[in-house]
Amino acid sequence: MAVRACLSRILEGSDLPALSRQIIDAISALDDDASSLQRLANVVLREYSLTVSVVRTANSAHYRRSGRPVQSATHAMMLLGARSVRELATSLLLFENYRRRSAGLRELMLLSLLTANHAREVALALGVTDPGEAHLCGMFRNLGEVLVGCHLPEEYARIHARTSEGEARACSRVLGFQYEDLGVEVCRQWGMPDSVAQGIRARASASSSQVAAITAFSHDLTNALYRRDGAGTNPNSSVSDVLARHSARLKLTHAQARTVVEAALTETRELFLSANVSIDALRLCQLNEAAQSALGVEPPAPIAWPVTPDPVSEGEALTSLRARLLHELQSSVDPASQRDVSALLLLALEGMLRGGPFHRVIACVLNSDRTRLMARTGLGADVEALMSKFDFPMTAPYGPITAALQLRESMYVPLDRAMNLAELRWTLGAGIAQFGVFPLVVSGTVIGCLYGDRRTVAPAPDRDAILYVQSLVALVVHGIEARRRATSTAALDADAKSGLVLRLLRGESMETVARDSGVTAAQLASWRELFLAGAVARLSSI
User: Fold this and answer.
1) How far apart are CA 108 and CA 99, in angstroms?
2) What topology is assigned to 317-489 in CATH?
3) Is the pLDDT of residue 30 over 80?
4) What is the pLDDT of residues 438-485, one digit of tens each?
5) What architecture (CATH level 2) is domain 2-57+77-294?
6) What would you measure as the largest C-alpha separation in the chain, in angstroms?
7) How far apart are CA 363 and CA 348, in angstroms?
8) 446: which strand partners?
9) Is the pLDDT of residue 233 over 50?
10) Any idea what the Cα angle at residue 300 is, between residues 305 and 287, rounded to 5°?
């Protein structure tokens, strides 16, 4: 079959398998449980622009749940859910992989991103429950052309030389199939949702679902606005023609289309700016002018480019990032935040990975009988392979990780001291050059540790980095202790609570009763008020 033969050619000597692995990893993280969030976090945190985009999406008006901005990708994923983040990450993995290539590929990926943003804005306008799915379908709508343009440049040039025949006929003559056929075949190999393949093949006259209809409309809208032939003219229909052609499935007005186009341009521009994606500002201005002209706005409304801020040093940027990530974790310490211990650990690990920064970070816990230390969750490149080696006995002779737990002291080698023989052997076997162990001591008992490493000898983290990690550890410990107190408090019956209140009424200090009982001073004060209110009500009824 011509399509599969073409795909075999593309796979030979290309980096498509690596992209395939990343996309399959993202798609496989389907659930909102801790293991799915860990796998998805590893996908997101590999790419700076993915991290920025996920955080920005969580902070958008559509998703924001409070007045406090989200700072970490982990918190953003908890707010958005694995499905929404999976769809966004999968879209941007494709964008990131191909926008770094030739100028022609950058232009194709820019158009794909605009189609994706059109699709999401249309889905929002129509009240579709999952606008992220529409974004995903829009990004992959032109996958076949992107693959041919990148991996088969000679064939792509020959197709363009035949544009006067029409794209479909030119593809058939040169390739023996259509771009859409190749896109669908690759999506099937990646295990993409059926809606993506349906969107690739969707037309105004033949759309199997509302999302497919949105994808077809968004693709046609992008072509009508932005695609030009070799003479610089637009061979496609006008926006009004696109609206009329899709009117049977999508009831959109010209005013709604204008809102969709403007929002998509704004979203595209902000992604490029916030994620430090390099693109010619003039090209985005040209796109804006083309859109405004096609939508009947004269003169074209200019893009409001932000004032370029003063350059920030790398050290200042890192200090600012650490402060934001610390604040994010601190806001989750209170049990009222609804974050469980797994969520606390993931937030702390992201703080270490990005703010350390380290190559890999792992949260380790002692088993139930405290005889072994094992990995619980981790982040970073190839962290799963390293985690498989984390199963250390807590009995003598101690290993390089458990030795630090026995001392209950943070350790980073070779920053604190030279490595001993056991540590040298372990690091050689694990393929790392430096590592640190930061014990978690909860209510006087060691329960595990946070671990971080770097694969290169230099640079070593500075003292500020170690203090920063120790602050993350202190917040995790505080959060675990608070959850234990909350659990023990919830288990107290009415007599036990009354007994604590009576101790306060007899004159014992709030601090003493709180320390003895493990109940917070705020909770004790609340119980005292309820106790006194109940007593007054009872006396009033006599």
Assistant:
1) 8
2) Beta-Lactamase (3.30.450)
3) no
4) 999 998 999 999 999 999 988 888 899 999 999 999 999 999 998 888
5) Orthogonal Bundle (1.10)
6) 98
7) 9
8) 441
9) no
10) 65
